[in-house]
Amino acid sequence: MNWIGWALLSALFAGITAVLAKIGVAGVDSNLATAIRTTVVLVVSWGIAAIALKPGSLSEISRRTWVFLLLSGLATTASWLCYFRALQMGPASRVAPVDKLSVVFAIAFAGIFLHEKLGWHQFVGAGLIVAGAILLTRG
After folding, report:
1. CA distance 24 to 88
2. DSSP type of residue 53
3. CA distance linking residue 97 with residue 5, whole number of Å
4. For tag attachment on the chain, is the N or C end more exposed, with fewer CB atoms within 10 Å?
5. 40 vs 28: CA distance, rounded Å
6. Distance from C-alpha of 97 to C-alpha of 93, rounded to nearest angstrom
7. E strand or H helix at 38, and its extent?
């Protein structure tokens, strides 16, 4: 499967996650709900990594890679804590589209920090995502 297939599966599971999480945060502190969800992610991810891991792979990871993966983990933690709190307070059908504005931020950050060349397709697409998020949060 190519990257588009994996990205579509990611979107599918993220959509499922929004609905399941909305149900899951009912009657529980959103931070506790995030911790429970994160524990599941931790156990499953390490299980999959352990099965696929080649001996010595962990020790071959560079310091730079560790720093950026740890920073990414902190950003993910902040995102999930905010997402679960938003789901607890608002309807999933409105929270999820706003959360997907992450796509717009990712495009901008890719251009700024990764020096990816952005063309009119990215700008128009990002604008449509913003417009869609605004439209979906109305009413």
Report:
1. 9
2. P
3. 21
4. C
5. 17
6. 7
7. helix 30-52
* Nearest C-alpha neighbor of 84 from the set 72, 74, 70, 99: 99
For 4, other C-beta atoms within 10 Å of its C-beta total 8
Owner of token pair 């697409």 = 125
pTM here? 0.85
- pLDDT 10s per residue in the chain (139 long)? 999 999 999 999 999 999 999 999 998 999 999 999 999 999 999 999 989 988 778 888 999 999 999 999 999 999 999 999 999 999 999 999 999 999 999 999 999 999 999 999 999 999 999 999 999 999 6
Distance, CA of 25 to chain centre? 18
